[in-house]
Amino acid sequence: MNTEEVYQEYGDFIFKYLLTLTNNSQTAEELTQETFYQAIKSIDNFHNNGRAKFSTWLCAIAKNVWLQELHKEKKRKQLEESLQNEDTLSYHLEEEYFKKENKINFFKQAHQLDEKKREIIYLRLLGDLSFKEIGLIFGESENWARVTFYRAKQQLRKGGQKE
């Protein structure tokens, strides 16, 4: 199957998946293109793996592309805000160090969670999605998403160990 055939077969599926994550058709289209670009670059990883379905592998790439975009957008907004408020900002190196340390510890602990809980934490906190939206992504109820998020949060407070 060549690149064009792969895009024809899976392009609409990936676009719809990203549209549910972004709620913006233009962003979803851009991220779909980036997803296929990344997939082409790393196609050998899929062939060597052989355990996952191709569509699942593409969704994983799409999710990572989306999370990277969220991170870039957050950084862009922070830069804009800091430039707008440059006169009023008082920069404290020690505070920034502790913020960074807390962020590193959070991601270390989140990494210890099982994949589903980790994804729900990221979708809720980084993606700023509602529990209803998270439930839709997983094909579950809003209440399921809320309870799973709560359990993941409790697990993070205990140090990220799997239950």
Description:
By secondary structure, this protein is mainly α. The chain has two domains: 1-89, RNA polymerase sigma factor, region 2, helix turn helix motif (Rna Polymerase Sigma Factor, Chain: A, Orthogonal Bundle), CATH 1.10.1740.10; 92-163, Arc Repressor Mutant, subunit A. Helices cover 80% and strands 0% of the residues. It has helices at 3-22, 25-41, 43-49, 54-84, 93-112, 115-126, 131-138, 142-157. The longest helix is centred in the middle third of the chain and has 31 residues, at 54-84. It is globular and about 50 Å long.
Question: What's the helix and strand layout?
Answer:
Blueprint (H helix, E strand, L loop, with lengths): L2 H20 L2 H17 L1 H7 L4 H31 L8 H20 L2 H12 L4 H8 L3 H16 L6
Keywords: DNA-binding, Sigma factor, Transcription, Transcription regulation
Protein name: RNA polymerase sigma factor SigM
GO molecular function: DNA binding; sigma factor activity
Q: Any descriptors?
A:
single chain, 163 residues, mainly alpha, Arc Repressor Mutant, subunit A, 8 helices, RNA_pol_sigma70_r2, DNA-binding, sigma factor
Q: Give the count of structural domains.
A: 2
Give the helix/strand class: mainly alpha
Based on CA atoms alone, the radius of gyration comes out at 18 Å
- Counting DSSP H or I runs of 4 or more residues, the number of helices is 8
> Hey, roughly how much beta strand do the residues contain?
under 5%
Helix content: over 70%
Q: Please identify, by name, the CATH architecture of the largest domain.
A: Orthogonal Bundle
Largest sheet: none
Count of distinct strands: 0
**Sequence of secondary-structure elements:** HHHHHHHH
Shape: globular
Q: What is the CATH class name of the largest domain?
A: Mainly Alpha
Give the integer mean of the pLDDT values: 81
What is the third-level CATH name, the topology of the largest domain? Rna Polymerase Sigma Factor, Chain: A
Low-confidence stretches: none
